[in-house]
Amino acid sequence: MAIQSRIRLKQIRLAAYALVQADRLLLGKVSIGMAVRRIVPAAILKHIFGYNWVYPSLAEAKAAAAGFIPSSHEHPASAEAHLSLAQNARPSDYPALFYLDRIIPTCRSVFDLGGNVGNLFYCYSKYLDLPADLQWTVHDIPEMQELGRKVASRRNELRLRFDGTLERMGEADLLLASGCLHYFDRPLPELLAQSGARPMHVIVNRTPLTDAEPVATVQDAGAYLTACKLYHRNGLIARMKDLGYELIDQWSVPELSVHIPCHPDLSVPTYSGCYFRLAPCHAGREVAVYSAKPKVNRSVPAAIVTYCFPSTPNVIGEA
Ligand SMILES: C[S@@+](CC[C@H](N)C(=O)[O-])C[C@H]1O[C@@H](n2cnc3c(N)ncnc32)[C@H](O)[C@@H]1O
After folding, report:
1. For ligand 1, which residues put their CB under 6 angstroms from it?
2. Residue 162 bridge partners (DSSP)
3. 97, 116, 195, best to mutate for ligand 1 pocket (most atoms within 8 Å of CB)
4. Measured between alpha carbons, how far is 246 from 25 in angstroms, rounded to an integer?
5. Which residues contact 102 (CB under 8 A, 6 or more apart)?
6. In this structure, are residues 258 and 230 in contact, taking their beta carbons and an 8 Å threshold?
7. What is the Cα gyration radius of the chain?
8. Ligand 1 centroid, distance to 146 Cα (angstroms)
9. How far apart are CA 258 and CA 268, in angstroms?
10. How much distance in Å is there from the Cα of 287 to the middle of ligand 1?
């Protein structure tokens, strides 16, 4: 990278750090970020803070990021970081593990959206008894799929497979969407509605859900930049309900945040996690519910319950 580009990145990072820290120190009593936005013309602020800004769409955030650092999720540092993180569970993994411990014995197939090189599979296999015949499909971009296959082959791991399509989401008993929904241009309910998939269990984790106006922004991972979209919490919950899901639980993820300098009102101080389950009702398609007791013959359904699939529009808009 040219020296001018490096200096420019350092300047942007320093400016963002200083403003976010100043706002943190004031504990939200007065916001310097908001004050600066009121006083200083937007064109000047945009120049100072570079990609650290708000954008109306993911595409615009991506274009802004690419003007500073062209690499994004495909950067090898992403796989390295995730494999290193896989060695131990993070605080936000524990609520997911709490539910997975109950769900996994009833599951034959997991769809791990944005699953990187399978880091959650490796991490969770230390905490859970993942059956030998469990199919764990990781959906990610081609670069991560290729690396993931190499890692799985080195570790002789046969339960993992890697896929760039959403087709296998329909076969899954559990959809795990951890740390990835904000990178998708379409909200989760729309992905489900368009694919027709209705996994019995959906765990959303490490997601920057907002209660404010949904915007897109850019996250700085050091070696690469990622454009992300902050989806509206109530919009997600309401649209999942439209698809037949009930919200069983939600939790906050204290270790992750998105701070947009000059826009503390649109920032997300803590990420969120949610557990959704298909709601039983008396109309619609029949779904086999597998016994929740571990160590049963998982090929035999314990009961057949009728679950409802309300008719859904093909495209579900965002909140
Ligand atoms: C922060 S990582 C999350 C990894 C893991 N699920 C976790 O929670 O630790 C986000 C992942 O989403 C993937 N991703 C981003 N955009 C994607 C897209 N359009 N399609 C598939 N995967 C995507 C990235 O490559 C990356 O592996």
Report:
1. 73, 78, 82, 114-116, 119-120, 139-141, 144, 178-180, 183-184, 206
2. 138
3. 116
4. 39
5. 292
6. yes
7. 21
8. 14
9. 5
10. 29
Distance CA 235, CA 57 (A): 17
Is pTM beyond 0.85? Reply is yes
Write the CA distances from 91 to 101, 188, 198, integer angstroms: 16, 23, 28
Average pLDDT over residues 243-255: 97
As given in the structure block, the two tokens for residue 254 are 């204290």
Average pLDDT on 286-311 reads 43
Closest ligand 1 atom, residue 79 Cα: 27
* Whether the predicted pLDDT of 95 surpasses 90: yes
Banded pLDDT at 290 (limits 50, 70, 90): very low
CA of 140 to the centre of ligand 1 (A): 6
Please, what are the domains in the chain?
Answer: 3-50 (no CATH), 76-306 (3.40.50.150)
Question: Do residues 271 and 257 lie in contact, with contact meaning Cβ atoms separated by under 8 Å?
Answer: yes
Strands 245-253 and 135-139: unpaired
CB of 73 closer than 8 Å to CB of 62: no
Atom 10 of ligand 1: nearest residue by CA position: 180
Contacts of 77 (CB under 8 A, 6+ apart): 221, 222, 223, 224
Distance 147 CA to ligand 1 centre (A): 13
Report the C-alpha gap between 307 and 286 in whole angstroms. Answer: 6
